[in-house]
Amino acid sequence: MVGVKSGGRKRMSRQTRGKINGLLYISPWIIGTLFFTAYPFVATIGLSFTDFNFVTDANFVGFSNYIELFTRDRHFMNSLNATLRYALFTVPFQLAFALFIAMVLSMNLKGINFYRTAYYIPSILGGNIAIAILWGFLFQRYGLVNQAIGVFGFGPIRWFSTANGAMAVLSLLRIWQFGSAMVIFLAALKSVPEELYDSAAVDGAGKIRTFVSITLPMITPTIFFNLVMQLVGALQEFNAPFMITEGGPARATYFTSMMIYDNAFRFFRMGYASAMSWVLFMIIVFFTALLFTTAKSWVYYADEGGDSGDKVSKKKPAKKPAV
Fold it and tell me: Are residues 73 and 217 in contact, defined by beta-carbon separation less than 8 angstroms?
């Protein structure tokens, strides 16, 4: 009995050591999250009600920062408008392009693994400062893009002289970073049961009808996930407008994240910038909650109410697709 108990103690001690070792391995992440994410997140709540400027002591000003944002600071409303236009235009095109490429890469083609890697690289490099600078050079008056357009007889386009042109340059850079969404779409496409496609082929369904009636319903959870993640990222866009357009022309691409940065680290109005960041945070929460609310009507999970075939049949009327 003594031997059994001592063996149990050894087993428990090994389990304890394993837990301690595990905590030690992830301790850098825990410390980083607490000090560089959680603490600043909580601190900005209090700072948003002060006039903190890094130099003098913070004084409580109540809701003055928030009142100024919505009543006297016209640049803030313009920045919100530019940010929302950028996100609502860019995200749908990015997801549509990512899904299209994922469908192409889901085919059994020669050297397909190389193409999957190549298409994913822009997502790794896209947020890089060097890539943002290079992207700006590509769209200069005599940049590579205008040179390519000139081959077809068109004059150089002044991309950065108009609001729509500058916004288009930033949107194209964001759309080009489709790799992460593409990889997730590719995994979702590979998980669609083959028997559903076999049944559709027996019924004589064409490729378009198969895509609309089977593929899309089965990957709606992945579409929802990518939509939320890409929308949140687009609403916080900073590197591209900061490095390429610097908010111009005439503040047409002066996004809210840039305005928060300027007020905090150029004008030293940290209290005002904190209030601004919380308004942006609530906007992100609003759109995320809206997506979760509407998801009940268009997101379909295969494990709800039967197998995947039952779920698809519930979404569409029970009739044979047209050949």
Answer: no
